[in-house]
Design a protein that fits this description.
about 50% helix; seven-stranded mixed sheet; alpha+beta; Cytochrome p450; about 10% strand
Length: about 400
């Protein structure tokens, strides 16, 4: 039941469960009703949800909205408690620290470096498809969409192959905790910290031609990175590169299987695929909301005053289906000019690995469609399950036949 707050925005503290069950339908209703809503946020505590494209885009670049938890009002935010060695990362930083660390990591994702990964990514995709081809059916998340980005980013960082499956399990435990295992998230954090501590020690002892070795050198030879920042950055690169890309690939495959006309268009004109990746990101991106922000002072968004210290959630999913920005936004159209979508952010916090995520999705989908001309779902659409969280939009499994 909605009622008006003193600031003029509708309040609906029970919306969180609805947003997990039917995000696009609920966002459409909220977006039409008002630009800003008071809801129960990702941690269950009150937050302000911004729903319309122009407001979200502007807020993403607003320096008065901080990622630093020090700007949260006492008791107003309760995320997962991370140790300092994992918490000192770009998702919790404002300039100048954010600028300093982002400049360092951006060197790993230059257009030239990313383009140099094209052939290795294609070889990895082909090898994964070779493995499942004789079976005639597969869970594309477990067999393809997850191992591809994990392999790519672990190769880039220099993470040994034997730990990669464990990392996926740790990530899942943190992003979507299992109520039946209340200690799982905390145990996953401990495992990740122990893993990175040991791996960084190994890189210091025996450096290699990889990104993590370069970051260790940057820490050891100057004041570019603190010890906590080094571990946190390594964790975030692997975490974000996996999390966003696996969901982008999975959601894109599901989208074309649910829209046979768009699948036919891609098969008829494979050159559409590069632009289609932008449409997939707009239509059903990996992150329904941007990382939470905190108002550094009273801020007005969409005519609603948000008090200092309050939590602000910017709905990327809602903005990307705002009819004021994208005509007929509920329709998937692989020929659409979807530039300007906000699926991967905007402003100084724009996803630094976005070019790599785009390339991986383009290659993954292209190789899949080329290899399996009779690809189809192997389960009713109503039977597909997604992660039970507002934070990410990802399939738990995607059964297909080919």
């Amino acid at each position: 039941m909605e009622h008006r707050t003193p600031q003029g925005g509708p309040e609906n503290p029970d919306t969180r469960a609805e947003l997990i069950a039917d995000p696009h339908g609920v966002y459409a209703r909220l977006r039409e009703a008002a630009p800003v809503h008071r809801i129960a946020g990702t941690d269950g505590r009150p937050a302000w949800l911004v729903t319309r494209y122009q407001d979200v885009r502007q807020a993403l670049a607003d320096p008065l909205l901080s990622l630093d938890k020090a700007n949260a009002r006492a008791g107003n935010y309760q995320g997962l408690a991370l140790p300092p060695a994992l918490d000192a990362n770009l998702l919790n930083m404002d300039p100048p620290d954010h600028t300093r660390i982002r400049r360092l990591v951006s060197q790993a994702f230059t257009p030239r470096r990313v383009e140099g990964l094209r052939e290795p990514i294609r070889r990895t995709a082909d090898a994964l498809l070779d493995a499942i081809a004789p079976q005639g059916r597969a869970d594309l998340i477990a067999a393809y969409a997850a191992p591809l980005p994990i392999s790519v980013i672990c190769d880039l960082l220099g993470v040994p192959a034997h730990i990669r499956g464990d990392f996926r399990a740790w990530t899942d435990a943190i992003i979507a905790p299992d109520p039946a295992r209340p200690r799982a998230a905390k145990e996953a954090v401990g495992s990740i910290l122990a893993f990175y501590t040991e791996l960084i020690a190994d890189k210091r002892e025996s450096p290699a031609d990889d990104l993590l070795s370069a970051l260790v050198t940057a820490h050891d030879e100057g004041d570019t990175l603190s010890g906590d920042e080094l571990v946190s950055l390594a964790f975030l690169i692997l975490f974000a590169a996996y999390e966003n890309t696996v969901h982008l690939i999975g959601n894109a495959v599901l989208a074309v299987l649910e829209h046979p006309d768009q699948l036919a268009a891609l098969r008829a004109e494979p050159r559409l695929l590069e632009g289609a990746v932008e449409e997939f990101a707009r239509y059903d991106g990996p992150a329904p909301v941007a990382i939470r922000r905190f108002a550094k002072q009273d801020v007005t968004i969409g005519g609603v005053t948000i008090p200092a210290g309050e939590t602000v959630l910017l709905s990327l999913a809602s903005a990307n289906r705002d009819p004021g920005r994208f005509p007929d936004p509920e329709r998937l159209d692989v020929t659409r000019d979807a530039s300007g979508h906000l699926a991967l952010g905007h402003g100084i916090h724009y996803c630094v690995g976005a070019p790599l995520a785009r390339m991986e999705t383009e290659i993954a989908l292209g190789a899949l469609l080329d290899r399996f001309p009779r690809l189809s779902l192997d389960a009713p659409e109503t039977g597909l399950r997604r992660r039970p969280t507002m934070r990410s939009r990802g399939l738990l499994a995607l059964p297909v036949r080919f």
